Amino acid sequence: MNVPLNVKNRLQQKRKKDHDRTLKIGKSNNIKLLSFPYIIWMAGFIIIPLFMILYYGLTNKNKHITLENITLISNPINQKALLLALELALISTVICLLLAYPLALILRKSHKRNNSFIVLIMILPMWMNFLLRTIAWQNILEKTGVLNNILSLLNLPTLNIINTPTAIVLGMVYNFLPFMVLPIYNVLVKIDKDVINAARDLGANGWQTFAKIILPLSIPGVISGITMVFVPALTTFVISTILGGSKIVLIGNVIEQQFRLGNWHTGSGLSLVLMVFILLSMAILSKYDKESEGSHIW
Amino acid sequence: MTDNKLINLINISKAYGETVVLDDLNLYIRENEFLTLLGPSGCGKTTTLRIIGGFETPDQGKVIFEGKDISKLAPNERQLNTVFQKYALFNHMTIAENIAFGLKIKKKSKNYINDKIKYALKLVNLEGFENRMPDSLSGGQQQRIAIARAIVNEPKVLLLDEPLGALDLKLRQDMQYELIRLKNELGITFIYVTHDQEEALTMSDTIVVMNQGYIQQVGTPEDIYNEPKNAFVADFIGDSNIIASTMVEDKVVNILGTNFPCVDTGFGKNKPVDIVIRPEDIDLVKPEEGIITGRVTSLIFKGVHYEMEVMANGHAWLVHSTDLFPVGDEVGIKVDPFDIQIMHKPTSEDEEAVELEE
After folding, report:
1. Residue B306: which of B281, B280, B335 has the closest Cα?
2. Could you tell me the pLDDT band of residue A1, with boundaries at 50, 70 and 90?
3. pTM of the model
4. How far apart are CA A239 and CA A233, in angstroms?
5. How many domains does chain A have?
6. Which end of chain A is more exposed for a tag (fewer CB within 10 A), N or C?
7. Which residues lie across from B300 on neighbouring strands?
8. Numbered residues of chain A with Cβ closer than 8 Å to any chain B Cβ
9. What residues in A contact B101, CB-CB < 8 Å?
10. What are the pLDDT digits (tens) for A35-44?
């Protein structure tokens, strides 16, 4: 062996490095394996169904490609259902935002120990089944329900809320409010207190500090809050069925009915239209949303 | 620097729950002074600064600014600006918008604001950075922007809360000189908070050494270094040999069983005291020439000097010298009388902290 010593050393070092590298790759492969169950889940229950909707939406019973399922949206009943769904979802989102933002601000300011209590109260209803919660609202709002019983006991005029759009909005706001509060709260607590102090220090009063510093910095949270309220509100059919009765039909109800009647093609076609609206709203929102906040609560 | 008292803190106390952070603090800051609040973490220095800035309200006491009580004013109503420890730049705004923030709120004209932005960026050596975002700047650059953002408002006082704490050593030293230059160019008062004694000695006109909510000593850097009032100050500022000793009589102190001549008088006879001798004030000489003799036990090369430890009279003496004495050598220790600083011994922990203002 007349290989010079330093060359030999270098060779050994290189071999060791290669060895380390293979070790590292092996490790990251192991970690990737862990995600396998989820990938199967995602493929089976999200990706494939999506393609099935796409297929059914663009074909008719004779398996011919057609756009008639999609153009069904221009049918006056469907159009009305879509517009009403958009309107109610929008109203609910705005109300959620108006309720959630001040609450998130209060949470940010209040003491940590009180915080977890308020958050607990917020989250507590979410531990109960979504259907149960909505049916409870039905019982409260019914003509002879809890609310009207109390009102007549106090000799006040009774209210007719059940089976109106108001009842649906109420149900949506009640169910989706936490999804607005949490992402906004999350961005607000991340704002460094000294950034706010700096604004005050530079002469801004409370309102100016809010308008120029806190609000702009909280936009990502607001955006994800809006997404997480608007999308489920737009697509819901459970809340409108339970609190809206049979008279008020949202696009979600139309699609549900079509699937129930076995019209998979029509249902899928209308779903695709709805999906376009959702993607459109997400695209508009994501323009403002650089880093996605609040996704961790899922 | 004039004798005009710009800010006067009177009997300031502050507690968070059970923890007393400041207890009956009195301090004044002169116009055009570079004053540094120096102390370990939790000594109350940052709280003092935040009380001046208006971010904390004192439980008791008053903050007087130009003769007026400003204790109850909000930060935006005070004529001073703060540079925060972690820069606290507005990340959603460009550098120019950051600097213009205070001016826009004061509704200054566009031309005025643009001139000011240019001037401030030139002052902190970051010309041409107007349209960059804070994220794209290094820590040192961000800190300079934070300073620029504060000084465009022409405050009478600039409060700086450990502004160099997050920077690396070389950058920190550069920024120290930069801050001194800025202070001289602007001709305003700086109140500076740091735990770094070297930083304090380099930049300050006046150093306020604090510990556990009390002021330990107020003085020029030279005063604080050469004549520390107590063991805490001596220990906190620089390396030192602090030894419990006895004042035999005027101008004679007994250190570890040997009488040393010193220059201090008025301590009484046979009174226990603490003495401090700076490591660079100890002369190592031949054994027969020293007041006491000892043996070198360790030797470290520090660049500017050697750091040695000499075991003598049962005490490990820390010595800085440019002369090298190898480990194991027997050496004599000599100290000039005026290099021995005599300090009253605290009789209790309370007294250690109280009433050093005179």
Report:
1. B280
2. very low
3. 0.79
4. 9
5. 1
6. N
7. B307
8. 192, 194-195, 197-205, 208, 212-213, 216-217
9. 199, 202, 204, 212
10. 889 999 999 9
